[in-house]
Amino acid sequence: MAQPILAPMLALILWTFVIWVWMYATRIPAMRAAGIDPAKIKSKSDLDVLPASAKQVADNYNHLHEQPVLFYALVLWCVLGGTADSTNVALAWTYFGVRVVHSLIQCTINFIPARFAVFTIGSIVLFVIALRCLPAAMG
After folding, report:
1. In terms of CATH architecture, what is 6-138?
2. Model pTM score
3. Per the CB 3.0–4.6 Å rule, which of 14, 50, 53, 106 could disulfide with 60?
């Protein structure tokens, strides 16, 4: 039977695919409207003409492959290190929720102070999970 802490990890993976679909749903029409031929793109700067709405979603997709990597590692540590208790499960679900809020802010209004605040909350949640895993790591 799967550990409960794996559910928020799977949820974040599935959320990443939601953003992937959203990215293509905004980027492909924006590229067509801008007359960009995908076969002729040489660098990211070739996409600078795209509207912010298309760039924001693509940026968020990229962000979901950055800090969440720490989350995935911590969840696996919790399972392997025996620290997947109810508190860490709740913290993992909190992190998932924070990342969804971060995505929705970035993909819509992209208000940087709000994004930064939400990102900071997520970072703190990860740090707390890591600190809670530390005693098991120390033996």
Report:
1. Up-down Bundle (1.20)
2. 0.95
3. 106
